[in-house]
Structure formats: structure tokens, C-alpha cells
Write a structure and sequence with these properties.
82 residues, mainly alpha, 2 helices, 0% strand
Amino acid sequence: MNPEKKSSKPPFLFGKKNYLFMFIGIGFITLGFIFMAGGGSDDPTVFNEEIYNFQRIRLAPTLVIIGLGIQIYAILLNPKKQ
């Protein structure tokens, strides 16, 4: 066996801080999709006005966009910079 070859594991691509921000971003995105869910009607002939409330029209998409922004930041964050 060649002594120059080491059997060490390759380092992770991202640091601990990157993964922390990634999980926070995933949490924002998940929360946004949970807020978007629901609002349908059991009877297809009855229109439900609840699909146009603030939570589904403004809050949920904003949370998803913020989560995507956090994900981009987490990917671009340099883990070696102190």
C-alpha cells in the first residue's frame, strides 16, 4: 500500500453554520406551505371566501420567498471565514 495515500474522509462541503441556516430556511418554506394549505369547500357548488384571506395570499408566499432567500444565503456563506 502506498504510504502517501491517506484513508481520511473528505471534509464536508459546508460548515455547521451553513447547515444551520439551511434548516432555518427549510423551516420557513415548510411553514409557508402549511399556511397555504386548506381552504377548500366540501361542496363543489359552494364558493368559500376563506381562500382569499391574508394568511394564504400574503403571509404564506412571503414566508416561502424569505425561506428561499435564506437558502441562497446559506449556500453562498463562506464556512471558513471567521
